Amino acid sequence: MSQLDDVDHMIISILVKDARTPYTEIAKKVGLSEAGVRKRIDRLLRIGVIKRFTAEVDYTARVKAITLIATEPSTDTSEVSRKVKEINGVERVYEVTGVYDVVAVISSPNMAEVNKCIDELRRIKGVKSTNTMIILKEW
User: Fold this and answer.
1) Distance between CA 68 and CA 96 in Å, rounded?
2) Could you tell me which residues come within 8 angstroms of residue 120 by beta carbon, excluding any fewer than 6 positions away?
3) For the purposes of burial, counting CB atoms within 10 Å of the CB of 12, is it exposed (0-12), middle (13-18) or buried (19 or more)?
4) pLDDT for 48-69, tens place per residue?
5) What's this model's pTM, rounded to 2 decimal places?
6) Is there a contact between 40 and 32 (Cβ–Cβ < 8 Å)?
7) Distances from the Cα of 130 to the Cα of 6, 52, 60, 69, 135, angstroms
8) Tally of CB atoms within 10 A around 82
9) Tens digit of pLDDT for each residue in 80-100?
10) What mean pLDDT value characterizes the chain?
11) Quick check: 117 and 80 in contact, CB under 8 A?
């Protein structure tokens, strides 16, 4: 992977805060031309530093939860993660270190759907146990 410089990091920081920031505005903040910013973002996309641009939706009427998943020692954690990601209602999946192996962020219209999602998680072959926390407030 190519070396990233301070300008690349500044551009990334701006895009993380608001992926819709116009290139002209980014250019003013980092001291480049609009074309220079466009070329850098294209390169960051090409080398895989920027994976995608996405919309963050405010689902204030939705129930969100974090489920910690422990897998059986003989289980391929990546396979469990792939199956978790396929479950309707799972927004994000992370493989982590510690007592738990996988973390799933769940978002559903109501508690019954969250519970259904957790039940599906528990049925995945290789899942040893789960621990779910309901998100009360997001900052």
Assistant:
1) 9
2) 87
3) middle
4) 898 888 766 665 668 999 999 9
5) 0.61
6) yes
7) 41, 30, 25, 5, 16
8) 12
9) 999 999 999 999 999 999 999
10) 91
11) no
Is there a contact between 77 and 70 (Cβ–Cβ < 8 Å)? no
* Residue pointed to by tokens 């250019």: 27
- HEC string of the chain equals CCCCCHHHHHHHHHHHHCCCCCHHHHHHHHCCCHHHHHHHHHHHHHCCCCCCCCCCCCCCCCEEEEEEEEECCCCCHHHHHHHHHCCCCEEEEEECCCCCCEEEEEEECCHHHHHHHHHHHHCCCCEEEEEEEECCCCC
What's the pLDDT at 139?
80
Residue with tokens 């850098």: 40
